[in-house]
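User: Here's a protein and a ligand (magnesium ion). What would the complex look like?
Assistant: Let me lay out the input and then the predicted complex.
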Amino acid sequence: MTRLSLVIPCYNESAVLTDTHARLSKLMQDLIASQQISSDSQIHYVDDGSKDATWALIQELASRDKLVVGIKLSRNYGHQNALLAGLMHAAGDAVITLDADLQDDLEAIPQMLKNFAAGDEVVYGIRRNRSQDSLFKRSSALAFYLFMKLMGTEVVSNHGDFRLLSRRAIEELKHYREVNLFLRGMIPLLGFRASSVLYDRQSRAAGESKYPLRRMLGFALDGMTSFSMVPLRLIGVMGLLIFLITSFMSAWVLAVTLFTDNNVPGWTSTVLPTYFLGGVQILCLGVIGEYLGKIYGELKARPRYIIEGTT
Ligand code: UDP
Ligand code: MG
């Protein structure tokens, strides 16, 4: 029988954790009772350096409920790293990751398990609609997926981090040593047989989103530059285009000077290119800097998370 591990990253989630656990433990009990999963299945709560009572709550849950395993990271490492810590720590044959706020529909889990039983190594939870999300979140998400596609990175649209991974997929994931984590881009790279389950995304049960605009932008930038060389290549293309245009312009100016009397010394033709080229150069430096920063991070190869303690 399948041993299931749930992995739930928690950052300042004391407002929802008790309710979340009540629903998750009921789900687990039902699945165990109907013999869909084995009785040594587990729920892993990863405390991502919360500043509120989250860890105390997790410890209390663990002392009451033998299904619960608490993992405390030594500081806030971010959602992706907390997920990874949980994935690496979980022992199940199948591991499902989901958010602490239960925006992901628990009803999708039995179907995920069915697909897993049928031989899928990866099962993506896909949002059928985002009507519960704010207009801003919806449109920024749409722009993000579009941009990723343009940049040539394979990401599954409308899929967050609600997914099932088989033991085999997780063992392979261990070989991906990158420090800049973007699991949504890494999982499709594993290959393997994958399928999707549609679900309705709920609104956050309590507490507030831990992804303000600044973090979301950083996350999107990580996703793009960790998986795509396109921005670097665009610099080359842009440079080439500007070179061609300027060569053509120079030839033209030379011709005008040599063969006509119309060579009015121009302010525009001197000053505009200066600004233009300056802008282009700084932009290109920025893109290169972005990648350089990535390389710097990867070279240092710092641990992606540190577990301070477990329950
Ligand atoms: N989270 C985390 N570390 C962080 C930020 C978020 O572990 O630094 C967790 C958070 O507790 C939640 C999940 O990641 O379980 C998703 O965060 P949230 O619901 O705030 O994001 P949103 O659904 O608004 O995109
Ligand atoms: Mg959420």
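Summary: The pocket of uridine-5'-diphosphate (ligand 1) is lined by residues 9-11, 13, 48, 76, 78-79, 82, 99-101, 103, 209-211 (CB under 6 Å).
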